[in-house]
User: What shape does this take?
Amino acid sequence: MTDLPTPPLSLHEFRPGLAFDVEALAAYLSRRLEGFEGAPRVRQFPGGQSNPTYLLTTPLRRYVLRRKPPGNLLPSAHAVDREYRVMLALADHTDVPVARPRILCLDPSIIGTEFFVMDYVAGRTFWNPTLPEVPSNERARHYDAMNDAIARLHSVVPTEAGLGDFGRSDGYVARQVARWSKQYLADERAGRVEAMDRLTEWLPRHVPANEPPAGVVHGDFRIDNLIFHPTEPRIVAIMDWELSTIGDPLADFAYHLMTYRMSSASVQGLLGCDLEATGLPSEEAYVRSYCARRGLKELPHLDFYMAFCMFRLAAIFHGIRGRVARGTAVSPQAQKYAEEVEGMANAAWAQAEQAERT
Assistant: This one.
């Protein structure tokens, strides 16, 4: 949801297969969303692997629409109603930076699938974790802003934010391993991967016995799912809440941290980067900052959590590969991610082997 050039007045920009009836949407929002006026111009954002996202520009203001994709979907996937609920709760009850959601529509007859509309948040989104667009002396402050944002999220008490029933408070990692293993094994169109098969057996046997207190977890917290202030090292919105639930904050943080242990041969990562020369904090320093903010002495079982998180990301890539095979992928980057299943799965297995040695 970074600031985008306004498209020509007469032009709606959709990717193939993801257009919808703009007049029907406008009529619906004019009746239901206070302050919505005029015919919107629609431009689909280029990112997003799961739920298609669109910029709506009206004569008075901008909004963002996020919808389920069309086509046959896996059960429980693309839950825009859950995204809407968690964002609304966080906007109303916490200082976690989110775009304020405005309206949820569960009637698929309007634009073909369920959707919700939220405020547009102007700012900067970075895809490369080395932050080449940012002066080197400002990069550490941008990383500290990320650290602050995820620590704020993990400090939320679910019951105090009205999210006590947003997910089970126990057994998060075990259930996640089971969920992603099941989705991986069920997607026959995407094929089988040797390292994934090994991980589906190894991970359940090594889930840590002692869980930290459950909290609100984002599920996909990474630098390109954040909107930074247009000029300041500050997060103004965390995006893409589709995988959010109640769960283990350490697993959520490890998912965010694993960029330090991934090279750009798979997805954008920092492995092999000269962090000091680049102006970025070390993994150890980044962990210390998070622990200080959360009042923790350490992050136990970090190698296991890394193996789990990389397995989960490999399973997400595997799901994208399945959507490519079925013709329902929504991003032009889908083919790229589909090709990275084996690399990410092998990286996950390497973390599992490291956990065995420690």
